[in-house]
Amino acid sequence: MNPLLEIIHITLLSISRALFNFSFIFVIWILYLLIKKYKSVNIYNFDNSKTVISALVESILQGIIIGIIGSLIIAIIGLPINLTYYLIFLLPLALMLSLINIRYLCFSYAASVMGVLSLVFRGQTVFGVNLPDININISGLLALVGILHLMEAILIYFVGADDPIPIVAKKDGKIVVGHLMQKYWPLPIAMLVLSSGGVSNSEIVQMPEWWPLLKDIPSNISTYFYGLMPFVGALGYSSITYCEEPKKRSRKTALRLMVYSVLLIILSIYSVGNIFLQILGTILMAGIHEGMILYEQYIESKREPIYTVPKKGVRVMGVNRGGAGDQMGIRVGDIIAKINGINVLNTRQYRAILKNGFTFLWVDVIHLDGSLDTYEFKAYPDGITDLKVRLIPENPRIIYRHQSVQKIGLFHIIRNRFGR
């Protein structure tokens, strides 16, 4: 068989085993709870967002596709992770960290903790106590996290801004509307592992003898083989923006993640046998990731929000597909200033004007860039009483604090699901 086709065949075989693993089902259940919690934020029904099930199915399919791509990259780069019992704690550790804050579900934090433990616990004896030898290949761990984030960056760039939920919040004493973006993907992936036969290898798909191209073999192992082990993880993206359009924000985040992932992959290659670079990589793995999040939060605190309650007119925050507003060309963020020459002062007057059931409308609209447009709509013979658009309420029933929306842990979600 052609060498490349052989690698693809073995990778797909390993991925298929991950799909029928209990861990994969468990991760899907967790993601179902997360997506359901995310959808519950849309209390004003600003837009026609996807259902929980359709969003979950979409995430599963995207996760499988990106998992196959990532697994092929892992096999080609060829930096293995030593197969030890402690490796199975990577996913549970990520889930434990997510109890604190959902963004800690990301493997960069769990892998960083595992890297520190691997550097500290090397089987030494301290005060007569034999410490465990965790012995995880940190270079391989860096490669794994780097590749996972490269896959995450690709997903965020293309679908990160799909289905954002507008939320009403109070920022600096003003009612504003931002966009909450949360995406989660189950990730079946095939990790390249180095096994000495000491761990149960029933789930490992053995690689051909000529692979991998880059071998990192510990000197204390005389009998070993390389294999692809099915592994189940999760990728997540969570961001909230008041000062940028969702697509613009998600693509900026994706580009920063790409730089981060390439840096980790380079570190993984050059850190083989270099303890200093391994320590540096372990620190940067979580440090840079957290720094990127804090940077986005800093930007949000300094810039002015885009969507505010206007002094005159009403601002559109949702446009129903196929409705009159959509047919006219009204878009999210537009301010409806006049209807049939009548000044629109607030949402109450907006509804009162439309109650007249005009058979012909001309609507003056102010766009986000300050430009003006007049749209027309004919509704013969019945007239029209609803443009099928959602507006920012002047006196919202529920508002979120700007700082609180993302400070949600998995513990709170599970507690709300099953009661206190």
Automatic annotation (TrEMBL):
Keyword Transmembrane helix tagged: yes
Domain of life: Bacteria
Keyword Membrane attached: yes
Domain PDZ residue range list: 264-356
Keywords: Membrane, Transmembrane, Transmembrane helix
Annotated TM spans: 12-35, 56-77, 83-102, 109-129, 141-161, 184-204, 224-242, 254-270
InterPro entries recorded: PDZ (IPR001478), PDZ_6 (IPR041489), PDZ_sf (IPR036034)
Protein name: PDZ domain-containing protein
Lineage: Bacteria, Bacillati, Bacillota, Clostridia, Lachnospirales
